[in-house]
Amino acid sequence: MPDRIALLPDAVAKQIAAGEVVQRPASVVKELLENAIDAEAKGVDLIIKDAGRTSVQVVDDGYGMSPADARLSFERHATSKIKTTADLFQIATQGFRGEALASIAAVAQVEMRTRTEGAETAAFLQMEGGELTAQKTIQAAKGTSIAVKKLFYNIPARRNFLKSDPIELRHSIDEFERIALAHPQVRFTLLSNGKELFRLASENLRQRIVHIFGKKMDEKLVPIEEETEIVKITGFIGKSDAARKKRGEQFFFANRRFIKAPYFNHAVLDAYEGLLTPGSYPSYFIFFEVDPQKIDINIHPTKTEVKFEDEKPIYSILRSSVRHALGMYNVTPSLDFSSNPDLEVGRSDTRTIRQPQIRVDPDFNPFAASPRHKGSSPSESQAWRDLYRESRSAATEGTRGEMDSAQADAAYMQVHKQYILVQTQNALLLIHQYRAHQRILYDTFLKSLRAARTLGQRLLFPVAIALNPSEVQSLDLLREDLCKLGFDFELKESTLNIGSAPSEIKPENIKTSLEKLLEQAQNHTASDPKLKEATALTLASQAAIRKGHTLTVAEMQSLVKALFARRENSFSPQGKRIYHKIALSEITRQFDR
pLDDT digits over 108-136, tens only? Predict the structure, then answer.
């Protein structure tokens, strides 16, 4: 029987190893930025072309490498970070495996320029498919510049699996933000296709958060700090009233390394218990400092999964520190992000607490014909009679479809500030007010997006929205569609000034609606056929009448009429049922049993 096992060719082995480390352009961004940080760079430039498909370049002013070190850095398992097994259990650097450059060079064309401070010349190396193709001496500034070109050029299948440019760029920006947050003392810039997305000066953490995520973040941040023998916790959490419907600005760092920690995420959410509306998530930027010997970061090639030796105690400490911070700062005015957060203290409430007084009316009779208390509301049956008389006087002819059978004196009433009950000739219709309005707005907005520009309603007081670099990028993508919808705006530096908006959107909802639009646009491209539908749905979902909003009879009548005037009136844009019909015969059967 012939032998079956053989050693893999070196080129194949390198590509397999590269698959664990390099999954997309963002993987290259992460590894190169980490190397720059480990080189003690004070300034780092990230330059991306075509979302990283064409090139990813990182330039730093760190300590650089000698020609021999530069050549050896492309060999697998070559590293200056560890020398013995014991070093694995006290790692304090970002990279340590010695696989990053070797893996990147195996699936791309790489050019490196590097010079140490004392050297008169720099080393230049060119790699292609893991092989050295050029090496020479050149003139270059102190530090290291690495350009990774044509990623996955020799693995077409992997290249074809890359997503659209906006999505791939978003992944790279995510990696950039994580490293920039972890090292606020380092200057960073990010350029994409020649356009500057970020320019971050050396600063403190609060400033770094604000400069990455926008000025609006400043008023949402609450400092958190706790130090024990097990762990030191620092950073910022978001105020409960600033929670969002989507997970986004949630960051954990262990010894200045970004980590994914669902277990600790649960601790944070538990600390917010009772303070968040259902389905909303708080922002947080939390840093753990622990003994390197009590944390294992060598359990995954991407180094984002970490194992803590004292996981359960840290969970309790984290939950307690978040609760303490929320208790101290929940009603505190926003802090100046340029100040030192370590010097800020909360103020306790010094008002005198009085025992509440309970008053009981011993003569109260719930079965009396009329209430004895002044200012009390009429009985429930009287309220129904009043509402019926009001609806009869305000009602008009029914609409088509299910409303064709409605009489001119059809009755309307609102149920639990969530549903509209309509009495027709042969049935009752129970209509979900939010879904009905969402359907109407969705169709209206989609029609505007597919037609010429719609004139918006001029705002009495213009709305200003501070945008972060990612939102500015999304604005460029949505600019034409926003104008078609009726938005009139001007972008000045990083502030969006809105002068007019669609008449269907209330002024107080404009800011939230625009922020949601810019957020959802990050997952689409300009040529994406679903972009217009997604835009219309996001805007309609934000502007629609929500549960808890009281409607007048005239408003209910107008909403129902508009619903049944359109072709699709049974289901919302997301496919959820809008109304339920209860036939009069069915009601009769229930009472004849």
Answer: 999 999 999 989 999 999 999 989 999 99
Mean pLDDT for 16-45 is: 87
Question: Hunting for tokens 């609450």 — which residue is that?
Answer: 222
Q: Which CATH superfamily is domain 379-593 in?
A: MutL, C-terminal domain, regulatory subdomain (3.30.1370.100)
Check the CA dihedral 14-19-21-25 and report its sign: positive
Are 205-340 and 379-593 the same fold in CATH? Answer: no
For domain 10-200, the CATH superfamily is Histidine kinase-like ATPase, C-terminal domain (3.30.565.10)
Write out the H or E segment, with its range, that includes residue 158. Answer: helix 156-160
Q: Please state, as a whole number, how many other Cβ atoms lie within 10 Å of the Cβ of residue 371.
A: 14
| Sign of the alpha-carbon torsion through 252, 257, 258, 262 | negative
**205-340 sits in which CATH class?**
alpha beta
Query: Long-range contacts of range 59-62, CB-CB < 8 Å, 24 or more positions apart?
Result: 59/143, 59/144, 59/145, 60/36, 60/143, 60/144, 60/145, 61/141, 61/142, 61/143, 62/36, 62/38, 62/143, 62/144
The pTM for the full model equals 0.69
Residue 10 CB coordination number (10 Å) = 12
